[in-house]
Request: fold
Amino acid sequence: MAVAAAPLTQAKKKEIGQSYWDLVWYRFKKNRLGVLGAILLIALYGSFVALPEVISPYALENRSNFVEAPPTAIRLIDEKGQLRAPFIYGLERKIDPVRRLRTWELDTDRKYPVRLFVQGDEYKLFGLIPMNIHLFGIEADQSEQRIFLLGSDALGRDYFTRIMYGGRLSLMIGLLGQFLTLVLGTTLGVISGYYGGAVDMFVQRFTEFLSAFPNIPLFMALSAAIPVFWPPTAVYFMLTIILAFLGWGGLARQVRGLILSLREREYALAAKSFGASDWRIMFRHLLPGTMSHVIVIATLSIPGMILAETALSWLGLGLRPPLTSWGTLLQDAATIRAIRFTPWLLWVVPPILLTILTYNMLGDGLRDALDPYSGR
Reply:
């Protein structure tokens, strides 16, 4: 007598019926470094791009008399050894007559409690909602005392605030620039690989022509074409377009190689035999087959875009004041005097390194997850 097959459990049915993206999500969740990178990136973009006005204690261009003040230490124990709520000591300016330097000394007679969600400089949340609540701060006259978590610059501006606002431009230029690179690179790569012949020859020779020029001199020539009287917003978007224009060639060649193999697959030939147009075959049938590769390349290329903006702005070839990015902030720390007397200006480096590290962690996780049938 035949034995009836045991009914499949719901979990087993789900396991058998998994789609490709279900398998990708399952593989990605098992990669702890990839998940950690995704969480950190969400936190970075939420902090530096969405909420820098809330997290920062002051407005971006809020100047003070506390010029080149050192980082303010938040204390829990006072000079008598007693435990207190978080507070900071006041700062008193002194002049060193021997070295002819401005110094700052702690005034233990003045204590300022550190509060959460205090009122301060007004701003518009997301550019729409008027607000004046900041995540932390002190309730004191700004001319009397301020809190500088990472010190102040040569104009008395809070350096922590400038790093937060600078991250918005640097992080967004990586996303916008890579998006334009994806659109240009994938489009030309698909066209080049599908048509071949003269079209392929033209696209590939043009990419080789661009790659033959050293990046820095080519960028210098392109950035010199930006008029100096343009508003900062126009300069920002033009820099994004230039970075995308210089970076699409490598992606186009990789997409072309994938399309050369995919265009001979049965489903592509079947679509062509049924009378589908070339554009439908290219962008409806062939392009989706390259997306897993394109997503990984894009994720791993965004750090390069951010580093390019940072390096070029540091060299004075990219964004310029009054725009504030991580690259323009590095210019303040590019002198021997800054390193010697205001070393806290180098605090802009850790956010850059953290961003690059998290993108690489996410990219490695996606690279393994998007190939769920590899068995690794």
